[in-house]
């Protein structure tokens, strides 16, 4: 982990943070930069781009402020600060190595103004950000108590991806606020990232267990990735209760097969009284995307938080093939930039200062650009070889969901326009009734099979049965969610044909919604019945193999044929679809 304080101190010693070194001959003739332009736009740009070190009160080893026009245009030692400003921007020694550079337009504006138009920068490949870093003070808040949550000498396996979780209980005796987080790096050569979760489950948890992806029934508390420094709340913090259980997830990437590694990495919490502003964390960004081989692609989603929510800071997160990251405030017809990162570098992941208060109707768009130069498709997921697009964001009041991912434009219903597929009989009817359905939590009832009579059957009801309502992107509200579809089935001795279109609209407790059309299911298969199961051999199918079942469960109940298709997974949630077909007259 790079310390901003150490970097700026080093830069001061090496003539980078406003030293008194003589100006290089390439500085050009001294000029008087325009005061009116400084007042109108440049001062604000300098404060945004350089104020973390060179603000009104210099910090992190910077020798002086760069916000006073009269000061920076006078010689300080043997050179004027204004001349050093455009020189350091030109030779990429300011900001210091390991710190994101300002957006290129900001750098160019400063350099051009400071040199009276003589300096034109060449765009480089450094990580650049339009937002300032969210910088921690050098020391934790006074009066706080340190608590360390560490791996217990974990033997790191010789594998490229291992997610290992460690459980901590009874961490406090009374409610307190976490005022600050510091990561504790024991084996940085293999540590990919650190996440601290708060468990909402009452189930027993092992002291240490393997945990690919987010553990079930958890909420994000803190996350660290290479490059990030400590994180401290300006007032208040995250609440921790005596009953809370925490799960420390360490993602190891030992692709070099380093032997004999034992790790004690973890997180240090600075705890104080539960007073002041209470924050929570939410991960904003798209899920479920795929990046084709040898392609460049942008993926995006929206997030709706409660009116009045106030954002403090956010850490953008991608893996290895990311190139750019953006967030926008969507307010009415306006689309206002919040943050933009270019030249993404996995090794330089930081929290950025994003002071923003949301109004009713506001949404936040999160977008990532990926450049997949490989010969394989890359999907979103938790593995190092997968990709992610998240902004891990601290918000007050605390959000109710761990993830926030909504389509940018979300219909409340998908129209079902039915046309018979190619595996249906040539005389298949086209005018079918619209079947509706519901979502509920519970185990799917056992189906009993029975003799299947010949005939045609029309879809009359759909039901999705969930093993739980809590998904990686929020808690589903079953009563508000809806299903609809049109379809039909033909049965004869040893043969079943099915043709169905459907859609779902899943509504979440936080108010967001996911509405999707389900790919057409259309097949013509022979079957062998064993109890309530049909083993299918397809002779015709439409779409992917996932839409052509190799087996299904069924029950004949009077004039109804109930069909259960293979369960689908959404993170830890299992969805078991049941379709009821009524015999056509």
List the helices and strands and how they pair.
Elements: H1 4-13, H2 35-54, H3 69-72, H4 81-90, E1 101-102, H5 104-114, E2 128-129, E3 145-150, E4 154-155, E5 162-169, E6 176-184, E7 191-199, E8 208-210, E9 218-224, E10 231-232, E11 238-240, E12 245-252, E13 262-263, E14 266-273, E15 280-284, E16 290-291, E17 295-303, E18 310-317, E19 322-331, E20 334-342, E21 352-357, E22 363-372, E23 378-379, E24 390-396, E25 403-404, E26 435-441, E27 455-466, E28 470-471, E29 474-475, E30 482-492, E31 495-507, E32 513-530, E33 533-541, E34 551-557, E35 560-564, E36 568-570, E37 573-583
Helix pairs in contact: 2-5, 4-5
CATH first level of the largest domain: Mainly Beta
* CA(first)-CA(last) distance: 72 Å
Radius of gyration: 29 Å
Total DSSP helices: 5
- The domain tally reads 4
Structural class: mainly beta
Helix content: under 10%
CATH architecture of the largest domain: Beta Barrel
Describe the global form.
elongated
| Strand percentage | 35-45%
Sheet with most strands = 10 strands, mixed
**Mean pLDDT over all positions:** 86
Residue ranges: pLDDT <50 for 5 or more in a row?
1-28
Named CATH topology of the largest domain: Lipocalin
């Amino acid at each position: 982990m790079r310390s901003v304080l150490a970097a700026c101190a080093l830069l001061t010693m090496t003539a980078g943070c406003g030293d008194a070194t003589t100006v290089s001959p390439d500085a050009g003739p001294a000029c008087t930069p325009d005061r009116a332009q400084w007042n109108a736009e440049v001062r604000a740009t300098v404060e945004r781009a350089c104020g973390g070190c060179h603000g009104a009160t210099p910090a992190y080893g910077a020798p002086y402020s760069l916000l006073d026009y009269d000061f920076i245009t006078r010689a300080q030692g043997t050179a004027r600060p204004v001349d050093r400003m455009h020189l350091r921007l030109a030779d990429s020694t300011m900001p210091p190595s390991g710190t994101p550079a300002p957006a290129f337009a900001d750098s160019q504006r400063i350099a051009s103004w400071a040199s009276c138009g003589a300096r034109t920068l060449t765009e480089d490949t450094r990580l650049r950000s339009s937002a300032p870093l969210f910088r921690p003070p050098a020391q934790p808040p006074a009066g706080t108590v340190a608590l360390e949550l560490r791996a217990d000498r974990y033997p790191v396996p010789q594998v490229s991806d291992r997610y290992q979780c460690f459980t901590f209980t009874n961490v406090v005796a009374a409610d307190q606020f976490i005022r600050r987080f510091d990561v504790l790096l024991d084996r940085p050569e293999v540590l990919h990232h650190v996440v601290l979760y708060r468990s909402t489950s009452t189930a027993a948890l092992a002291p240490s267990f393997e945990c690919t992806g987010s553990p079930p029934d958890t909420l994000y508390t803190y996350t660290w990735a290479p490059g990030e420094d400590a994180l401290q709340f300006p007032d208040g913090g995250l609440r921790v209760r005596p009953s809370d259980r925490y799960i420390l997830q360490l993602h190891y990437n030992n692709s070099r097969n380093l032997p004999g590694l034992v790790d004690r990495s973890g997180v240090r919490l600075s705890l104080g009284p539960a007073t002041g502003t209470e924050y929570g964390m939410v991960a904003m960004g798209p899920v479920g995307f795929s990046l084709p081989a040898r392609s460049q692609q942008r993926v995006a989603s929206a997030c709706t938080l409660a009116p009045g929510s106030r954002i403090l800071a956010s850490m953008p997160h991608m893996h290895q093939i990311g190139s750019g990251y953006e967030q926008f405030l969507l307010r009415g017809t306006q689309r206002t930039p919040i943050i933009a990162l270019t030249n993404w570098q996995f090794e330089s992941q930081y929290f950025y200062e994003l002071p923003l208060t949301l109004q009713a109707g506001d949404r936040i768009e999160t977008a990532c650009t990926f450049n997949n130069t490989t010969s394989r498709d890359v999907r979103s997921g938790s593995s190092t070889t997968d990709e992610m697009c998240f902004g891990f964001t601290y918000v007050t009041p605390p959000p109710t969901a761990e993830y926030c991912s909504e389509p940018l434009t979300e219909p409340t219903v998908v129209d079902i326009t039915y046309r018979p597929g190619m595996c249906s009989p040539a005389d298949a009817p086209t005018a079918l009734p619209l079947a509706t359905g519901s979502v509920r939590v519970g185990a799917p009832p056992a189906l009993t099979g029975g003799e299947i009579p010949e005939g045609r059957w029309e879809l009359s009801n759909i039901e999705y049965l969930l093993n739980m309502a809590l998904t990686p992107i929020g808690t589903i509200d079953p009563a508000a969610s809806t299903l609809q579809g049109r379809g039909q089935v033909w049965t004869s001795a040893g043969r079943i044909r099915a043709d169905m279109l459907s859609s779902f609209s899943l509504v979440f407790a936080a108010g967001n919604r996911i509405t999707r059309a389900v790919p057409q299911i259309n097949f013509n298969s022979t079957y062998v019945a064993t109890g309530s199961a049909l083993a299918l051999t397809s002779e015709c199918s439409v779409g992917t193999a996932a839409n052509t079942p190799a087996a299904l469960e069924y029950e004949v109940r009077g004039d109804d044929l109930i069909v259960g298709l293979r369960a689908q997974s959404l993170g830890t949630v299992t969805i078991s679809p049941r379709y009821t077909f009524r015999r056509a007259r």
